[in-house]
Amino acid sequence: GESVGLHLPTLSVQEGDNSIINCAYSNSASDYFIWYKQESGKGPQFIIDIRSNMDKRQGQRVTVLLNKTVKHLSLQIAATQPGDSAVYFCAESPTGANNLFFGTGTRLTVIP
Amino acid sequence: DTEVTQTPKHLVMGMTNKKSLKCEQHMGHRAMYWYKQKAKKPPELMFVYSYEKLSINESVPSRFSPECPNSSLLNLHLHALQPEDSALYLCASSHRDRETEAFFGQGTRLTVV
Q1: Cα distance from B31 to chain A (closest Cα, Å)?
Q2: Which of A73, A112, B32, B97 stands 20 to 30 A from B50 (CA)?
Q3: Domain with A8 in it: what CATH number?
């Protein structure tokens, strides 16, 4: 598989603050980069993706940034809420097809 | 209906047993997947079915045998498993034109004794 790693295994933030989760990837040929959220006892849930020809994409309260120069991906969550507490995985897809390679994961804990 | 349903939720089996995991979706997705997830680790891709045909097998041992009877169902047949095969087995599906957006089931927590 591909090598997709995260800088920090855990992150704690105060409710209402912004969160930034980082990810490093190794395959410069990857075409899509994706963020998934996994809550305890559940399967991963798609959050947002970004194609390699973009450097920023925004969703509802989330922004994904892609820096291809340093092979770095980040997920920004605005006004973090307790329901955001979960493990966040970055993933990459070399061809945009059905072969996702997941990174290690970061556990986000939101402190009320 | 945006659900992927997996049964059973929990399974304990002996190393000589034969069991099957089942997965069902009614979103019209033509790509379906099996992932294996060990505790505190990311999901690892095992198999991919595209239009009911096996398109990717990530070097999975033959004691795991996938089957896709129709476009809504995906099975994983288990035989002669080892204790190290204990894990959460996740099924997922995606639309052919949006394959990065996979919909995952809750998984089957498998324990091999």
Answers
A1: 8
A2: A73
A3: 2.60.40.10
Would you call A35 an interface residue with chain B, using a CB distance cutoff of 8 Å? no
Interface contact flag, B42 A32, Cβ < 8 Å: no
Q: Could you list the residue range(s) of the whole structural domain that residue A65 is in?
A: 4-111
B55 reaches A (C-beta below 8 A): yes
Domains: count for chain A: 1
Return the higher-pLDDT residue of A97 and A82.
A82
Mean pLDDT per block of 10 residues along chain B (113 residues) reads 92 96 96 94 94 89 96 97 98 89 96 97
For residues A81 and A108, what is the distance between their CA atoms, to the nearest angstrom? 11
